[in-house]
Amino acid sequence: MLSMQPIGHVRSPYRDSQDIPKGLGAKHEAEGVLEIRAEFEPGLTDIEGFSHLFVIWAFDRSEGCDLVETVPSDDRPHGVFATRSPRRPNPIGLTVVELLCRKGPVLHVRGIDMLEGTPILDIKPYLSSVPQERLRRGWLAEAEARSGRKP
Ligand SMILES: C[S@@+](CC[C@H](N)C(=O)[O-])C[C@H]1O[C@@H](n2cnc3c(N)ncnc32)[C@H](O)[C@@H]1O
Fold this sequence. Notes:
Elements (H helix, E strand, L loop, with lengths): L7 E4 L19 E6 L15 E7 L9 E2 L8 E2 L12 E12 L2 E5 L8 E7 L12 H10 L4
């Protein structure tokens, strides 16, 4: 078993899962706050230089897990590890947010898709070296093509 302690909590405009945009073409532009516990504040040193961050967090209000599931982006079932479903064996979420500003232990961000009070497990600078032409988007690209949407 592993045990982890939250480094902080998300202050989000979303109190109900239904309010969070879902499905193909959903945009996550909501602003929110990552409130980091005072004891971890030194760990934020130099974070201001990064435009985007990976936020690793816990789906604390998700129950159970389906290894194959139909998610809001498609009407066909997919394996849990090929989706971003909250119902997974280890309920860990990953969100890329834009860092707007830091005020001490508080990070103001854009791109929230978590519920109010979600526990934050870790934060890392967002860096991607994968060129666009090497990215494959799997079943999502097929679902977008069937619906006539562009990514
Ligand atoms: C599809 S998941 C994607 C989350 C993250 N971007 C990822 O890829 O891991 C986003 C959904 O998780 C649900 N959710 C958000 N915060 C949650 C929480 N604290 N506990 C359980 N479910 C949550 C909401 O229904 C939201 O629409």
